[in-house]
Amino acid sequence: MKCIAVYTNDFEVFSDIYEKVLSTPLAENEEKQVEGVTVMESGSVPDNYLDRMRTKPEVVVMKVRDKDITILQHRNLFEIFIPEKESVVH
Description:
Elements: E1 2-6, H1 11-23, E2 31-34, E3 37-44, H2 47-54, E4 60-64, E5 69-74, E6 77-82
Antiparallel strand pairs: 1-3, 1-6, 2-3, 4-5, 5-6
């Protein structure tokens, strides 16, 4: 799964920029600012990373079912996990 890190602890801010983040073209390990929030393409993560993170009590797990996207929130970070086979429209 491809991971995009969004560095904010504010759900409202994340929610406001979510669609822009998905449509922002990012190369692997590239960092950009989206409306003043740092966003980074973190590359691929193994599936067991998601399983491990889901078991932690401080991690909030959200699912976008129609797009098969999983979002984790912990500390000051949102991580958006997108299946590799899906391409995000740029």
